[in-house]
Amino acid sequence: ERHGDVLAYEGTITGPDGLSGVIAGVQHTARQHDETQWDRVVNATFSFDGGDSITVHGLIRNGTDPASAQTGDRYVRAVVGGTGQFIGASGQVESVRSDDGSYVHTFTLL
């Protein structure tokens, strides 16, 4: 792990009432916090079927391997905008890692 390392990721998302789409994001390694933890700047967009989207940004801290999140790990990032029904969105998203390696994303929109 080094400063400036990049991890790109994508995945499918599903939600209530048949909501579905994809999440695509990038993590940039920004700072070594201690021997086992790194701070990473995250930019991600949740793109829903039909064209609406929510974009999030924030700093997370996790292990030396950016894909090493453990069950129950929690990350909170700011909602910085959106499109369609989410135009002008603000608030936050909390992402919690599940036992199966997936994440539950809970949005609080203002």
Annotate the secondary structure layout.
Layout: E1 6-14, E2 20-32, E3 37-48, E4 53-63, E5 74-83, E6 91-97, E7 103-109
Antiparallel strand pairs: 1-2, 2-3, 3-4, 4-5, 5-6, 6-7
Number of strands: 7
Distance N to C terminus:
36 Å
Q: Report the mean per-residue pLDDT as an integer.
A: 90
SS strand fraction: over 45%
Listing every helix as H and every strand as E from the N terminus to the C terminus, the arrangement reads EEEEEEE
Can you tell me the overall shape?
globular
| Largest beta sheet: strand ordering | 1-2-3-4-5-6-7
State the share of residues found in helices, binned by percent. under 10%
Helix count from the secondary structure assignment: 0
The low-pLDDT segments are none
- In terms of structural class, how would the helical and strand content be classed? mainly beta
Biggest β-sheet, characterized? 7 strands, antiparallel
TL;DR of this structure?
This protein has strands at 6-14, 20-32, 37-48, 53-63, 74-83, 91-97, 103-109. It is mainly beta.
Verbal overview:
- The chain is mainly beta.
- 0% of the residues lie in helices and 63% in strands.
- The protein has strands at 6-14, 20-32, 37-48, 53-63, 74-83, 91-97, 103-109.
- It has a seven-stranded antiparallel sheet, with no helix packed on it.
